Each structure stands twice: as C-alpha cells, then as structure tokens.
Amino acid sequence: MIGSPDVVAFTKEDEFGQTSPEPWSLPEEFSIPLNPLADSNPWAKTSYAKFSKDFILISEFSEQVGPQPLLTIPDDPKVCGTFDLNYFSLRLMSVDYQASFVGHPPGSGYPRLSFVEDSRVVLGDSKEGAFAYVHHLTLYDLEARGFVRPFCMAYISADERKIMLQFQELSLRFSQASECLKAGNRRAFAKELQRKLQDLEYTHSVLQREEGLHREAGPQSMYSTHAVEKANELANVVKSIFEHRDLLRQISSYHGRPRRDPHAVTCQRCVTEALNECEQLLDNKPSSHTDKDRKQVDGEVHTGDEEQVEEDEGDGIKRKPSYIPQLIKAKSAKCFDKRLKTLQELCDETFYEATMELLKETERSFRGDLCYLHTRRLDKALRRRQRVTNFLFEEDLGDDADDEKGVLRPFCAVNHAAEDYRLVNPPPIVLEPLPLELDCLDPADPLDPASETSHTRESELGFEESLMDSSASEQTLETQESSEETKGSFSSDKSGKCLLEKQPSVASVRSEPPDPDSDLTPDADHNTDLERESSSEDMETTAGEDEGDQTPVSLLEVVSELDVGKDDDGEKVSSKEYERESDLLVPIDTSCCMAQEGFLYEASPPEPNSHLRPNSCSQTSQASVVNQEPHSLLPLQDDYFVGSVCSESPAARQELSTGHLGDTVSRASLDDGSDCTMSASTGSDRAASPLGYGGVVTLHHRKKAGQGALRFVRQYPFAIPALWCILSGRTLVVLGADEGRVRRLVAALALFVPCPGKYGKRVQAWLSFPFALTDLQQWKLIGLQRVASPAGSSMLYSLSRYSRYISILDADQKTLRCPPYRGQLLANIADHRTYIRRGSTYFLHLQSTFCRLAAKAFLFTFTHHFHLPLSSAEGPEVVEGRRRCFLQEQLGLSEEDSQILLYLSQLITQQYLQPSTGGSAAAAPCFSFNYTTSVLYKI
Amino acid sequence: MLRWILGGREANSSVEKSPVLCIGEEQPKNWFTELQVLRGHFDIVRFLVQIDDFRCASAGDDGLILVWNIETGERLQELRGHSRQITAITTLNCNDGLMSHTFLITASSDRSVSLWDPDTGNRVQTVSDLQSSVKCLLVLERLCVWLSGGEELCVWNKDFQLQCHRQNHSDTGISALIELPKNCIAAAMDKEIIIYRLTFSTDSSMSLSEVYCLTDHQDQIRALINVVDGVFASGSHAGELILWDAVDWNILAYEHILWEESQPCAQAEIRLKAPRHSEMSIQHLTTNGKLILAAVGSGLYVYSLLTRTVVAYRKVAHDSNVLHTMLLSDSELMSCSEDGSVRMWEIQDLPLPDEHASAGFFGMWTFSRTNKQTGPPTKKVIEVPNIRTLELTGDLIGHSGAVQMFLSFRENGLVTCSADHLLILWKNGERQSHLRSLALFKKLEENGGL
C-alpha cells in the first residue's frame, strides 16, 4: 500500500536539490511558469470526476468491517454523486502512516496507549478522478482493539493542484479539527476510564465479599474449585484496575509530552483544564483506592473487608452521584458482537460539534476553483496591506484575517477567549517549503497562481535530512515516537517514486539504483496506467485482507475462548492475556505492512527521476500522480506599499484571472448579476440577506447590487448627480411610497456609499418616521417612506428643514433635488448609455473606479504640503492654492469632483486618527456640510 | 409636496413681505460647516456656561451638569447631585496666588446650591434645604462673596457660609441680579428694581440693606444687565427698555418698543392675533458697551448707547420668540429662538436709506432726568436718516426644539443647547480639517510612517 504510485508524500527539498542548476536559479523576471503543455485544457482532467464539488469525507478503519465512510461534509448525497465512498475510504485508510503502535513495549507490564501524531498525505486516485488531502488521526476507545480507533478526514477534490497548492492551509485547518476532535476524545476517554474503574472497584468489592463468604463457608485448608475461580477472578479484577489506572495516567500525561507536529496547537486553557480534570480523576480515584490497594497487596486473600468495601462504594457513589457502578460480568460480550462507538460517542459532544463546524467552515472556505481561491487570497493579502484606505469601498475582510499570518490560533471548541492564543512560529520542520507568513512570501510572480518555479525556495534543514540518511531501510516501527520519522522516511521514498521531479530526494536519487522496471517508463502512459490498475488492485487486496481481518480476530477469539476456561473475566483481560493479544496483533500488523511494502516495492518500483524528467509532460497529463510539491499560495511582493496603484479590487482581479483562463466559465455563468466568476458552489452558501438588515454585507451582496446600480444608472438621467451626492458625503434620501422600490433603489445605491461599515451601518434601507439630525450624521443613504397622512407632514417638515444637509431622490416622481453637479469624474461610472450589460461587470468597473479614487484620496490625504504650510512664512492661502492646484490641475477635478476627494480624504483622516471607528465613546462623530443651493433634476 | 423655499436675500428687508425670513441654502458668510452632536442630557438643556477656553458646562431640566471639551466634543465630566432641574448656573473663580481655578455654582429647584470642581467632577460644597429655590446667582469677585436670589436674597462667602440674608415680601421673588458700583446690587423683582447695599461692619460681618426702589417699569422685568461702568439697562415684558445710571439710579433713557402693526398686510393680520405682549416682551438683553441688543418677541432691536437711538431692528427675525442673543462684534450678532434655529445677522447700511424712513413702527420716548414720571410721553416717530438694517447672513439649523442658549468660543466654534436634549457644536469645517491634518501628520511622525 505504501508504494502506490498515486500516493504522494511530502518532503522538503534537501541540500542536494539546491546544488544542481535549476530553473529557480534564474532571475525572477525570466522565470516563466511551467506550462502544462499536454494539459492545456484545465477542465479536462476533472471531467471524469464522479462528484460535483469538493467535499470532506470522514472515514474510519473499523476493526469490525474495515474501512468505511462515516460522513461527508456537506452532508448532501448530491455532492458525492456516483462517487464510491466505500472504495475511496479504503484508499484513504490504506495510506495511514501513523505509527499506530499497539500494545506495550517489552519492558512495561501494562498496555500502553500509543500517542500518535497525525499524518498528512495527499492521495490521488486517477481512476476516480479524485485527489485527496488525507489527514489521519487516532482516537482512543476503551473497547477498541489496542484502545485505538483510526480515523481519517479527507478533503476530496477533483483538482490535484488545488490540493497541492492548498496543502499548508488544508493541513493547518485539518490539524485544528483533529486537535479538537482528539481533545474531546481524550476527555471522553478519561471519563470512560473513570466509569470503568468504578465498575471494576465495585466488581472487586462484590467479588471480595463473595470470596469471603466462600472462605468462611469452606474449611480453611481446602478450596473448592469455585473458590479458586473466584480468587482468580478477583486477581484479574485487581489487575484490571491497575491497568486502567495506568491508562488514566497515560492519558493525562498526554499534554506533557512534546509534540512534533508543528500544527498541533492546542488551546492552553483547554489543556490546563483537561490536565486538571485528569489530575482530579487520578487524585480522586486512587485516594480511596490506594489504601484499598495496599490492603490487597498486604494480603490478597485477606478477608473481612466488607465494611471497607462498603465504605469505598459509598465513596464512589458520593463522588459521582451521576454514575452508579455496575457489576462487570465475568463474561462480557465478544468484541465483535458489540457495537463500536460512533464518532460522536467517542468525543465530547461540544468538541464534536465544534469540529464539525470547523470542517464545515473549512469546506466553505475552500470552495471554488484554485484560481478563485488564489485570487481571493491574493486580494486579501493586498488589502490587508492597505488598511488605510480599504475601509472606503472594500467589503470587510472578516475575522479570518489573521489565521494566515503565521499565527496559529488554536481552535478551541469551548470557545475559550481568543486572548490566550500565542504566536506560534511554525518550527522549521514544516512539511512544506514556504512558511505561512506573508512577509516571507515569494516575491516572484505575484499574479501567477501557479508560479511553479517558486516553490522550492526554502531549504529545509535538520531533522528531515537526517531522516534521508537513515534511508528507507529504517522503517521499522519501533516506538510510537517514531511516527513522524516513519512518515518522513516513507515520504522520501515516495518522492522518489512519485515524480516529484523538483524534489529529488536523497533516497531516490542518490541511494537508489535505477530499477530494472524503469525500462517501462518510455511507455509512460501505458506504464502509469498499468501501475494505477495494479495499485488499485493492490488496494483491493489489501482491503480484502483488512476487511477479513478475521485472522487476528479469530485467533483472539480462540485465545479468549481458551482463557475463558481459566477465568470468566474475558472482557477485562488479564495482563497475560493482553500480552498474548498484543503479541498476536502486532506481528500481524507488521507482517502485513512488510508484505505490502515488499509487494509495493516490487510492483510499483520507484522510477528514477532521470527517466521521468523527459516525459514529465505526459506524466502530468496523466494526472494520476501529484507531481508537485505543495506550496503556499501567496507569492507577494515584500514591499507592497499602501495605497499603491496596483490596489485593484478583489473582484476585478478575479474577473481578470478567470477571463484569461478561458471563456468556458464566463459563458457558463449567467448574467443574473450573481457571481459569474465562481463555480456554482462558491458563494452560494451565503445567505442572501438583503442590504440594510444589519447583516454583514458581503462581496456577494455587493455584486448583486451591481445589477441594481446598473439599472439605476441606465434608467435615471440624473444618476450622476445622485451618485455624486453619495460619494461626496451628502446624505441621499430616497423617498417613495412603495417599500419594495425604495429598498431596491437603496440596495443598488448602497454600493456607492463610502465607508459603508461592516454591517452597512451607513445605510438605512427603509425608514417610516421622520429623521433627526443625528440620523443624518449616521446614515448616508436613507430610504424614506412617503406618507400621505398627516403623519407625513412632520416627515416633510424634517425633509425641508434639513434640506441643506440632504439630497432627495423622489422615487415616485423621479426627481432629484441636490446641488448641481458639473464634474466629469462620474461620467465614467454613471453613463446611462454604458455598454456594460451585466451587473457583476459593472460592479467590477465600479470597483476599479473606486480604487483609483481611493488611491487619489490617499495621496491627497498623506501629502503634507497640501494641508500644512511648508514654512512658517506661508499663509493658509498658499496651502489652499497648492491644494486647489493639485486637485484641479494635477488630478483634473472640477469643484464638485474635488468634494468627493475631500470627503474621502476626511474619512481616511478620521479612520487613521481613530482606527476603532468612533474612538472614545464620548466623542461624537463630526458631520461636515456646506451651504449650497440645490436644484431640481427631472427625468 | 415639498416646498423649496429658495430664499434669496432681499435687499429691502426692513419691509418684510413675508414674516418668515428664509435665507436659503447659499450662505457664503456662514463658516459653520461642521457640526458635532453632543448627547448626554435627558431633558431640556437650558444653560451653558464657559469654564475656560476649551470647556463649557451645560445644565438643564434633568438636573445634570455636563462638562464638555468643545475641541473634541468629548464629555469630560458628568456632575450628578441635583434631583430636580437646574435653575441657575455660574462660574466662581478662585485665585490662590498663582493658580486660578474655576468652579461651578449651580442652583436647583430641589432648593439646594452646590459648588462643583469641573476638573474632577466632585461636589465640593453643597447647601440644601433652602427656604426657596434659587432663581439667580451673582458672584462678586471683588468682595469674595456670592449671592443667591429667589424669594430671599442671601449672601454667601466662598466657603458656602451664609453671611446675611434678606427676606422679600414679593411673591415673584428675584429674577435677576447685577452688581452695581459702591457695593450695590440691583435685583429685579417683578416690576421693580430694588437696590441693595452690602455693608461690612468692623467685625467683618456683612449686612444687606435696601437702598432704593425703581418702579418705572410698567410690566414685569425680564432682563437686567450692566452695560458699561455707570450704566445698566433693564427690559420689561411690555417692551420697555430703560437705561439707568448706576450710581444715582436715574433714568438715562427710556425706550418703549411698540411693534404695533398698522400695515394692512394679510400676513400681518394673522400675526396680530398672537398675544401682543409676547410680541414685544424683551426676552433678553445683551451689550458690548456700544450697542445694546434686545430680543423683543421674535424680533431684534439694536440700540446705540452713543447716539441713544435705535440703530437697526428687525421685527420678525425668527419664527418664534428669540431666547438668547449675542453681539459678536459691532456689526455682527447672533440670535437663537424657540423655532429651533440660530441666526447670524449683520448690521448693514441700507442701500437706499430714504426708502425706510417711514418703516419704523416704534415709539421712542426720551426722558430727561427732570421729567421723569411726569408728563405724557411725547410720541414721535423717529426719522433717523442713518438707520441701518439687520441682514441675515446665515442660519444654523440642527435642533428640533427651541434653542435655549448658545455660547461662542470664537474661532473654536459655537455651542448651542436646546429643548431637544441635545447640544450641537458648530465648527468651522476648514479649520477643523486643518487641525485634523495636523493631527494626522503628527501621528504619522510618531508612528514613523504608515
């Protein structure tokens, strides 16, 4: 299973990779993204995927039925389509590289819990057209074999590059989910252990009493078989108690252990809480216990402890009144008869829910194709650097702003306040060359989503290299700590095999001789096909084996059957039995592994890179193999200045990038004003709450509003002055009797409101009572109900009273009353003879115009001598003249257009001076206006 | 539906075509292009008092005294303690050598008077359970005492110890107090002005004695101000404006403002139905030493001390009663009214003076000292060739209730308080923008770039 060609593990490049002259040594400006020649149609390879969009699959390797899918996110049968989840689960579980060491090391007497680090792997199934990021994790289950339940979470996509390029991010998010799940599981496990201990204690007490009775009944010297049986049983129970207490200690020591996984960040509060909890359990339990134990040690056959036992029992009940200990029957159900716990049962409820939320969020955030994701991220990164102006017209970045900035915020299911997260610099052992920090991003190709050339930049040091040296032969699963290493070494093998042409690992290039099978490589197509076939066949066979795991199982059964003769305590295995069991298990596991490895080495030999390079194109076209190392998606310039000209809107870029990808997408998209550039899956989840209802105004909303805005511009000849009013900060009141029409107008015009705020607080979509001055201060766009009744007169009064502060757009009579506008600036965006036909296009057009405006406003705001005198000799008139000169001559703005810029500049200044909008609670916002006469525009 | 009154400025504005004056939206002389709404009060805000160059205190019917920073609009302190509305507020300066510290004295209808430190918000002193509520306060810096007037007149020292007091026999009580030379105090009480003298006996105890009573007003006295040294003025509900000599309490001038309409104008007819008294009641008097500005009903009336004549007037300056006025300079003045607006006026020479010769409908009686109280007043329609006009140069619209009072901080802005529970801070937008730019580049420098 390891050698499956579809399986790709990740290595870092090593120092040898750097020595050879590689394309990335070219100056940046000459490096061209590798064009996948044979893969010119990017949609071709996904065509045969049997599922419609990406999804997350959680599978487990059940000890009863083998690999099985548990759930998908989104939980919609349509998503997976005809995709065979069962089969894919098998594939997923077959690449579990966790060193799931089971049993106990030779020295210790008790069964050990194996603390396994998660493993991450990318798996491709060319036959199914599916690629998956697979995250394996192990949960603990007291009733499971070896106490472990292997699970995996997989992000399945038809686009391998998406997986590869998003690897870091995926890994991060799945690690969070995994940590969450595991934390919940540890809790549940500890609880279960505690109950079990109580049961055992109770059983112990009962048995003791019985034995005592026996002993009193029978003569002192001779024991009945029954008494012997009882004594054995008692001994088993005692042993079991010790074992369980040891387990409890182990599970509580979990947090103390050093983590190798750089992504495994846990919430500190959770950890301490969990530790305390465990300590409590440990302290509580044995406190009453130890003296009992001592007694037992003193004389195992000691009698007459009924009172003591009673007391203990009483204690137990007092401590945990919620749980009444049960007598553990000597003969319990066989492990294959019993129902295994579900994932929910394995985890604490809150943690399970939180994990599901996290995964859903993950799924949501990865919707859309690679290009979309990339541009979105680029855009975010750019906008993050533009904090000074981006509040004007860009939608809010949201709170996911910092999770990509190198801050690993531990996800906390219980929602421990965010204050206790620490800045975690990912240690150098990241499985991926580019760290997450923006600042470390590759300066090359800021706009090239693929930028293949940039991903091998960083040399990873230390740890992994030593692993390379240790070579593949060291793949024995010695200790549980070696999990990472094992993974690493597997990876190195894989990288050799699997066309990681960029990353020739030591293992493959240097130490491995060319395989005889490499002759096959010229016929690459055929070869890989064959391989694929064979590998999937292998999988099948492996799966068969796994499913028919009966070998160990039946043996176990036999063993336990045998044991039954001795003691009835079949379920609570004595240590001897346990040893036997693990003895049985471990060799089987390893042999299985070995067999597979061997097999894989034979069947799908690693192909040396020398052979692969020439036909890398054809290889790529196969798309069966992930042929790239994953790398971070953000190759941005280091010195990106705030407010520079290339601050384009996200959407604009998005449109552009899809544009050059081909017409297919855009043709596919309808001109309903919805997001045409994304696939249907993206954005559709956003609840389309209308503007002005206090919901977060998303990009999606704004794009939808684009259609309305376009309609407005086409329909009303006085759109230009109306837009000018909004842009220059004069409140526009849309007056109308029909709520729907007013709301639609407001929604359309809301697009133009500068600094709309996160929840559209500057916009009031529908107001049916007279407004006051403070409302004008807060709202820049108001939809006002026209009332015919006397109640309306007060509204009219307020309208005329405050008429100097507002412009009034009468939606019924189609008039606009506002100061006259004679500028040219807005003719570009509000031309009613515009050729733009689609709302989203218009939105992008607007965005670019606004961006230019914002850039100008930025320049204006932060140019010292436009506002302040250069020397003390200069009077305010000189400054004023300079400002006017800049606005009118350099920017070519008329008087009215200058007002827009002045208003934007004022907003920027305010924002800069008090970033937390509003500043101190006491200081009210300022409201600027000017005294100009208004004119009435008619249609 | 909407009546857009595009009021151009009328050149011949002294003869008013419409009683409602509207300037329209183009106001080039109005430099208040930015405003800040200050919230905090829960009831009518009636009083504003300046503490120093950048602070003011507001008080009103909710019993709250709020201290504001007018540069930032921040609420600095909230002085709570009075359980009922504030009836009077004034500042008390304490000079202890180097430092001068300003305190606030407030009187409330809960019959208590308190001393506040506006820096800390502490109530430094308080006197409660007075016999009656205090209607006016007067601080005599020179004598280090302050007086409270209500149904009784009390004299307190700066430690809030009662020095002496005098019971009044009038029902209405003292409505206004001013300081006169020679330790005298003029107190307006219904239709009379009573002069008290404060005498210090040898053991530094004080006594208050009634010296004189001026009974020339025909109606209730609404306003009482010091004009210049030696002259004070009073205005009554009936529209009488009397200038008094502050030393020997003689009448220097008597002006009876009669807005009696004789023009058969339709709108004027309607307006005539309004109570006549409120039309000519002198609500407020203010002076800058050269001019006396009287708020008469909804009109404004400028009287020159120099010429002892009316310089300019506007019968209907506001839609409703004018509540507070101020002379910004010799030619600029400002008024606020129950109609919720603040208007700025300029005293301009008339382009065609002869056109207005017959425009005035007011009577003026000039009394010499001898014919005081005797003889029928000889009514003569004044024919002043150099009468000028009050030109509306701008208005501030923002309040939705009566503007009770305003306080000018010169170029720093203007604070208005209103019955709509709000204070509005009006500022010069350009100046503010300049200040913001300064702050911006300062912060930029501090941050070392963006």
From TrEMBL, chain A:
Biased composition (Polar residues): 612-626
Record-level GO BP terms: autophagy
GO cellular component, one term: cytoplasm
PROSITE patterns registered for this protein in UniProt: DENN_FLCN_SMCR8
UniProt feature, compositional bias: Acidic residues: 536-549
Keyword terms, alphabetized: Autophagy, Cytoplasm, Guanine-nucleotide releasing factor
Bias-annotated ranges (Low complexity): 470-480, 553-562
Bias (Basic and acidic residues): 286-305, 523-535, 563-580
Domain of life: Eukaryota
GO terms of molecular function: GTPase activator activity; guanyl-nucleotide exchange factor activity
UDENN FLCN/SMCR8-type domain span: 46-909
A Pfam cross-reference name: Folliculin
Chain intervals for the UniProt region annotation (Disordered): 282-320, 442-580, 604-626
Signal peptide region: none
Subcellular location: Cytoplasm
Major localization class: cytoplasm
Family per similarity comment: Belongs to the SMCR8 family.
Protein name, entry field: Smith-Magenis syndrome chromosome region, candidate 8a
Organism: Cynoglossus semilaevis (Tongue sole)
From TrEMBL, chain B:
Entry GO CC: lysosomal membrane
Any single GO BP term: regulation of autophagy
WD repeat residue intervals: 57-78, 79-126
UniProt entry tagged with the keyword Repeat: yes
UniProt keyword terms in alphabetical order: Repeat, WD repeat
Superkingdom of the organism of origin: Eukaryota
Name of the protein described by the UniProt record: WD repeat domain 41
